[in-house]
Design a protein that fits this description.
Elements (H helix, E strand, L loop, with lengths): L4 E5 L7 H10 L3 E5 L5 H18 L4 E5 L16 E3 L4 E6 L8 E4 L2 H6 L5 E4 L4 E9 L2 E8 L1 E3 L5 E2 L12 H13 L3 E4 L5 H14 L5 E5 L2 H5 L1 H5 L4 E5 H7 L5 H15 L3 E4 L14 H13 L3 E4 L1 H4 L4 H15 L16 H17 L4 E5 L4 H8 L5 E6 L2 H7 L5 E5 L5 H10 L8 E6 L11 E6 L2
Parallel strand pairs: 1-2, 1-16, 2-3, 3-12, 5-6, 12-13, 13-14, 14-15, 15-16, 17-18, 17-20, 18-19
Antiparallel strand pairs: 4-10, 5-9, 7-8, 7-11, 8-9, 20-21
Helix pairs in contact: 1-2, 1-12, 4-5, 10-12
């Protein structure tokens, strides 16, 4: 069994039903819908195709909505042409929706023009172009090109060290979030989170929509790294989004920060996802580089709950092979036992819950159990067990489709949608579906989500079948 989950981004390279089915067969656990691109109609079609592919393959799969957030971009250019920027050349940046020219480009994100100061660095198009801010003239930023190149329209702008006031949830994000919740997504990734309040804004919208799903905070700015513990206090997951993070802080710090975020997430009992350029070369090549393979294997060793493929599956030439390769790399890396980190959970009731789950893990090891079955209403028991990194396979048995989706990102947890309410019914279902061997030992565990110990809390060791 593979414990670390695989997230794959949906795009033109894998939107066909047959390819989605092949991706599921290759091992995808979560599909990502990137709302930085596409329309509501195209995402609805992708969501429908994913659900149909899951039915066809008999696989359980979750859908993650990834909101675009306050991404700073350049505006359109005259005739859609590119600009050639040479070192030493002056380029002005203005706020607004105007059409750019050789002398001036626009950005719809006004706070950048208001916040950047003389001496600040701006990185365009994923860092390929570097500008130095010389000052402000007529309400526009005056910059000089340090490293030049060809600049197309609608390219990203990063402003390392510039304090930007924006919330991570824009008006577009709020609209997209409500749409996604109505569509039936299982979790939501929030881009450019800086504080716990950013996550709370999204959670409030979910509450208003009466459909709370896990909020995954994408760590892409230094402020988020500084506030990581408070963010982990409200988020249900974090994503180490190394693309923008590597532009917003010195590149050499990214590996250390990646380890720090994953360790803090594990200590908080919050799942973490590693993202960006995992197998970047497989956009065009049939095999990843050896450095990329080592990078993915190291993420497993560090304890990431999931690894995400982006362009590799969305627009790459070998989407299915990329997933197959990542699956093989993870399985080999997992032959080294996972490091145990004792989590200090924040939710109410977690102390007695952790004690029960620790006892279940110890009992499973002593009895050489084939599986631990978490009987859960809200996914709390499954999350506790996952954080303890048991070598034993964990099944999360629940009657809630939302919980099935939420558990799909958890390390080592296989969610099962079932109406069975008694242990003997669960035993028959697991054996009948071929998930466990008849006669093997299993540990059944349930932890109340509340401090009231009069609720059902139990550990039960018995044989399957």
């Amino acid at each position: 069994m593979r414990h670390t989950k695989i997230v794959a981004t949906v795009g033109p390279a894998c939107s066909q039903p047959a390819v989605l089915q092949d991706l599921l067969a290759a091992g995808v656990d979560v599909f990502r819908l990137n709302f930085s691109h596409g329309t509501h109609e195209s995402h609805a079609a992708s969501h429908r195709a994913i659900r149909e592919a899951a039915i066809e393959t008999g696989r359980t799969v979750a859908v993650m909505q990834d909101l675009s957030g306050p991404k700073i971009r350049t505006g359109p250019l005259e005739n859609g042409a590119s600009l050639t920027l040479t070192p030493g050349r002056e380029l002005r940046i203005a706020a607004g929706d105007g059409v750019g020219s050789a002398e001036r480009v626009f950005t719809p994100y006004a706070p950048l023009v208001e916040s950047a100061n003389q001496g600040d660095t701006l990185l365009l198009d994923d860092g390929r172009i570097e500008l130095r801010v010389e000052g402000r003239r007529g309400g526009e930023l005056v910059t000089v090109v340090v490293n030049g190149g060809s600049l197309g329209q609608h390219k990203g702008i990063n402003a390392p060290g510039v304090a930007l006031p924006a919330s991570a949830v824009t008006a577009k994000d709020a609209e997209d979030l409500r749409f996604g919740l109505g569509l039936g997504v299982d979790m939501v990734a929030l881009s450019f989170v800086q504080t716990a309040a950013d996550v709370q804004t999204a959670l409030d919208i979910m509450r208003e929509s009466r459909r709370p799903v896990p909020a995954i905070a994408k760590i892409e700015r230094p402020a988020a790294v500084t506030n990581i513990d408070s963010i982990l206090g409200v988020a249900q997951g974090v994503m180490v989004a190394r693309g923008d993070l590597g532009l917003e802080m010195p590149l050499e710090q990214v590996p250390r920060v990646q380890k720090h975020i994953i360790r803090r997430a594990r200590a908080a009992g919050v799942p973490s996802i590693l993202a960006t350029q995992v197998f970047e070369s497989m956009r065009v090549e049939p095999r990843p580089t050896r450095a990329e393979v080592s990078d993915a294997a190291n993420a497993v060793e560090e304890g990431a709950d999931a690894i995400m493929l982006a362009g590799e599956t969305a627009v790459g030439a070998h989407p299915v092979r990329a997933v197959e390769t990542l699956d093989a790399v993870i399985r080999d890396a997992e032959t080294v036992p996972a490091e145990r980190i004792s989590p200090a959970f924040h939710p109410a009731g977690s102390l007695h819950g952790r004690a029960i789950c620790e006892a279940a893990v110890s009992l499973a090891a002593a009895a050489q159990a084939e599986a631990i079955v978490a009987v859960t209403r809200e996914g709390h028991t499954a999350r506790l067990l996952s954080s303890l990194r048991p070598p034993t396979q964990v099944f999360a048995a629940t009657s809630s489709r939302d919980v099935v989706g939420a558990c799909s990102i958890l390390w080592g947890v296989t969610p099962l949608l079932t109406s069975a309410s008694r242990l003997d019914e669960l035993v028959r279902m697991l054996v009948g579906c071929g998930l466990v061997r008849a006669g093997a030992a299993g540990v059944f565990v349930n932890v109340s989500d509340q401090l009231d110990l009069t609720d059902a809390n139990y550990i039960n060791l018995q044989r399957f079948g």
